[in-house]
Amino acid sequence: MKIIAALLLLTMITGCSTVGGTRGGSGMAALECGAVGAGLAAAICLAAGGNAATCAGAAAGGGLLGAGACYTYAEKYEKRRQELAGKEDDLDARLKYVRGLNEDSKKSNEELNKRVTQVSKHTDTVVAQIEQGTISQQKLAKEREALLNEEKLANDQVALEKSALEDMKRFQAEQKRKTGADSAAHAELDAEIKKQQRLLEETQRQTSALASQRQRI
Fold it and tell me: Of all helices (H) and strands (E), which one includes residue 128?
């Protein structure tokens, strides 16, 4: 049981922090994330040798904690949007906003990278079970559904980051038309937007890695 507890703790801590919140708001995204956390918690518990009753309870706990982890990203994004409200045309406010977004994306990508590693290892186990004929079609269908949900959540974050990047690029273009681009503040803005682009590309790579795991089964 100690091994099972350790695996579940890892699942709960990493959660699924790759949430976008574009479909029905951050609350709906959190609920979706909780469902994924519960499914994977149960699967990992069973793979570690737990019985059905133990794993059902663990799945409930895993789902709740997973929802909290996922909600954090959407919540931070919404908070930063609220802080920017009314100051959208202010360069200093925009710099603070994009720096914050980039910090959030960086941390989220670090968690997503851990998540991809975890999901990959779990998928290795499922693939082995398929080859050995030891997994039922019903359980395999649930595994596929869980991986599909993971991918959808990552795609939600990609969509959110794309929207934020497009918004910043519009502001950047407006600033150049109005005042030129020769100030230190404008140079910093350009650098942060380039960083924002790189972080989005990293999120997209991690999302593709999740998709490749689903295709394995």
Answer: helix 91-132
